[in-house]
Structure formats: C-alpha cells, structure tokens
Amino acid sequence: MCNMRYSKLQILLLLCTVVGFAILFLDLRPATTYVTFPSSNTIHRFSEVQPNLRFSANIFAGIKDHFFPSQCKPALSVVFVKTHKTGSTTMSSVINRFGFSRNESFLLYKNDTSHGHFRQTITSDVRELLPPLGISSGEYDSYRDFDIMSSHVRFLPNIEFLRKYMRQGSRAITVLREPTRQWESAFIFFNCAKMMQILHRNATEKIDTFFTSPLAYWNSTVDGQCKYYSRNGMWYDLSSNAAIHTNESEVYRELEILDQTLDLVLITEYLDESLLLLKKLMCWEYKDILYVTLNQRNATSVLNMYHEDQIRKWNRADVILYDHYNKTLWRKVQEYGPSFEQDLAHFRTLLKEYIMLCGIGDTIHRSKNRISFVAHNSSSLCQSLVSEGNSMIVKRQKTPLHL
User: Fold this and answer.
1) Is the four-CA dihedral 22, 25, 27, 33 of positive or negative sign?
2) Domain termination site, one of 23, 40, 67
3) pLDDT tens digits for range 286-320
4) How far is CA 134 from the centre of its chain?
C-alpha cells in the first residue's frame, strides 16, 4: 500500500478547494432552508426582514461574501413618503422615472384617480389599491410585492400596511424642508387664511394676523388639509400621533422610531448632496438621480426675523425633526468617504449638461402661481425630467390586461 504524505499547505489548499466547490454548488441550488424569526417588539428598519416573515437562507452565504465579495447591485424597490410642501414633487419625479422606465408596479390608492395618493387615509383594505402590473382587478390574493410607493401617505400609521404589500427589502426614504419655509408654503397653498377668516389680501399681512393669536385661529378650522398642515405638517405626515404638538418627550420617542425605520431622509436645501447619498444607498447610476425642480412658486412671502421666530415656536415638532435629520445628513456625508466632493461636482456638471441637452429653460405658469418647465428635446428622458409622471403611472396600472 502506497503511503501518501501531504504537507500542511497542501491539506489547506485541498480543503479550500472543497469548500469553494461546496459554496458554488449550494449557491446554485434552489434554496430549501427557511428561517422563521420569533415575535419581537423591536422596531425594525423598513427594509429589514420583519418578525414572522420566512425567507430562504444559505448557511454558507457569509463565507462566500467574505471570500468572493459581490458587486453592488441596484435596489429596485423603494417607499418614498411624499411629504407636503417640501419640494417632494421633484423627488417623486426621480422615483417615478426610475420605476416607470423599468416597468415596475406602484402601490397606488384607487380612490385617487389622478395621482394615487393616500394622503390622510389610514388603510388596511387591499380593495383600495390598484392591482400590480400583470394582475387583473379583483385578484386580491395576487396584490403583493409592489415595487414603488411614491405617494402622499402618513408613514407610521400605515407602516404595517406598507410592509405587507411592498416587496420585501424595500428601502424607506422621505424628504424634509426648512420649517419656516415649509410652513409658509403650506399656509399659503392650502388657503389657510381664508379658512380662518383672515381676509387680508397681502400674504405677509395674513401671516402677521395669524400670529396675533395662532392657537385660536388654528382651533377655528375644521379637520382638513389646512388644519393638518398649518402646524407641524411634516411631523403629521411621518408620525403616528396627530396630537403631539406640545409634547416634546413624545416627539423624541417617535423620532427614535423613525430613526430605526427610515433608511434615508433627504433635505430640500441640500438636494444634490441628498441625492448623492440616495445613489449610494440604492446603488443607482448618476442618470437615475437627475432632476429638474418641479411645482415651485414664482414668488414667496417675505418673512422677517419675527415671522421666522414665531413659526419655529409654533412648529416645534417640525423644528426638532428637521434639525435632527439635517445633522444626520451631514454625518452620512462624512461617512460617504473622501470622494464625496468630487462625486458631487461630477453630478452637478451632469445636471447642467442634461438641462442644456434637453433644452430646458422656458416656463409656463399654472394655477396657484406654480411654474412648469418645458423640455424642447422630445426624448423620453428629457420629457420625464419635466414631469412628475403620476398620470402616466396611474393610467398604465389601471389599463385592463387585454389592452
């Protein structure tokens, strides 16, 4: 019998070869092992696997990722919580363009026939949704794994509903705006002065009058958009409790929940920086985050230091919310790495190039002093840059299968 002697190095190489083939073999086989998480009260990030959800597991995945690191793969599913009067139309156009061009299914509220917004609705009824692409209306068991949600929706009150119907692993993002400007925009847009019987014609005078007795004027309005968005409107869109305008401990408690649930909060005043962070989070291309500012006004109210001080006191929850995520944004910028400034400069150069290429510059005025841009280049990309895209998305998803 032949005696075979192997060195330690040969044995190690042999073992590595065997493990390598085992990893490749197991990775190619259909996953048959499942892990069930126990029930827990822990708050999870929206994109993380939730308690009681089963998913396929490969016990060698960690070894494979260590020795054979994979390339970044684009994330295709996202929940964008479209907050009010924050520049969110610009952001939703980015999300909508990404999903529409890839023929993805959007989670849409059927009762809003033009945009699919949920707004203040707190829902648990699948019958209130438009079906995903490829599914007939009424086949409710197949209403699942939606790819994109980019509508106005109250986030925490609907979070379990969103988790149930969105594709597992969807990222959750939103956008915030500096509170004094966000409040002024909402107060004027929703015609709150008229609702409160403040009859001045000048916008600044209306704001002056409101702050002579803000609580009285606010209490004089019935429930509706003016009521919801003339005090801590951004907080109302995100939080689970509408009556926390003066309870700071409650605000900070729910802020912790948002921290553990949202994957990214963009800041309107630093949209380019925010979009660069979104690109990294989603592993998208620069072309995916191109934008043109949409739905902006041609003029805003003149706010002095007194107005700004009063607005910040009146909207204390929004101030806490914005200040927190403004700091979070810059922390993420630092974590991005040394290439951030170079990548940002490249992105801004691309924006200018595409604006010139698409011939964007002329404007048309719409209702409520809104400005719309026109793209003279007829390419689908150029046209999508100047459109929010909601109407096309709703129309496509409402179209019967046989058409």
Assistant:
1) negative
2) 67
3) 999 999 998 877 677 789 999 999 999 999 999 99
4) 25
Amino acid at 335: E
What is the DSSP-derived secondary structure letter of residue 153? B
Q: What distances in angstroms separate CA 284 from CA 76, 279, 336, 357, one per listed residue? A: 9, 5, 15, 22
Which one, of 322, 345, 341, 388, lies nearest residue 93 by Cα?
388
Q: Do both 88 and 59 map to the same domain?
A: no
CA dihedral of 278, 265, 387, 367, whole degrees rounded to 10: -160
| Residue 20, domain extent | 8-67
256 and 315, same structural domain? yes
Structural domain contains residue 59: yes
The predicted pLDDT at position 400 comes to 73
Which tokens belong to 264? 């990214």
Please identify which residue in the block is written with the tokens 């070894």. 63
Whether residue 222 lies inside any domain: the answer is yes
Q: Are residues 165 and 29 in the same domain?
A: no
Assigned domain for 127 exists? yes
Q: How confident is the model at residue 51 (pLDDT cuts 50, 70, 90)?
A: very low
